[in-house]
Amino acid sequence: MFKVLFVSSFLAFFLICVSVRSAPIPGHLRNTFRSIQAREVFTGGNATYFLQNGVAGACGTVHSDSDFIAAMDQTRYGDSGDVSPLCGKYVKITNILNQKTVTVQVADDCPTCNNENSIDLSQGAFTQIATIDEGEVPITWEYVDSDGSSSTDNSSSGDDTDNGSDSDNGSDDGSNSDSGSGSNDDWSSD
Q: What does pTM read for this prediction?
């Protein structure tokens, strides 16, 4: 009798463990796990700034100095004669000296960046993390979604390429509209 009870209890426990282990993870948790797993923070780079001068970047769009955009190192960007799969992707940049962050959209390549982890920012984006007088600051950065949350796509290629023309109008109501200005004060934090 004891043997049957023990085997039955063990079998019940085993079946519960197996069914819990194989239960599907809800979608929102699965995406969270994927984001945490896929997140890669790039180090050893510097942020600088550049003026737009009314000229289209390598991604083919014209921006103002107040737009929150970035030029990626040419090694990472690829052939500057082509529109890179990075165009339109978002990166969150952290100044390691003061921990200020800004989220920007890739719109250009940077042939003068120090290394593949360095990024050239528009003046508007740079002033969110440093002063113009500083000119160059050490950074870390990561790919993120347009809302600044950790991205599950850390690749430098993909079919969801955007030409960088989608951007926020900087309104304070929290809504996103395509005005083409690219300025969005909500993308940065101190």
A: 0.61
pLDDT the model gives residue 149:
78
Model pLDDT for residues 58-93, shown as the tens digit of each residue: 999 999 999 999 999 999 999 988 999 999 999 999
CA distance 72 to 87: 9
DSSP string, 23-88: SPPPHHHHHHHHHHHH---EEEEEEEEE--TT---TTS----TTS-EEEEEHHHH--TTS--TTTT
- Strand 69-73 and strand 101-110: pairing? parallel
Note the residue count of the chain.
190
**37 token code pair:** 């797993």
CATH topology of domain 41-187: Barwin-like endoglucanases (2.40.40)
Buried b (16+ CB within 10 A) or exposed e, 126-139: bbbbbeeebeebeb
Domain ranges of the chain: 41-187
- 132 pLDDT more than 90: yes
Main-chain phi, psi angles of 42, to 5 degrees = -95, 135
The rounded distance, in Å, linking the Cα atoms of 33 and 126 is 31
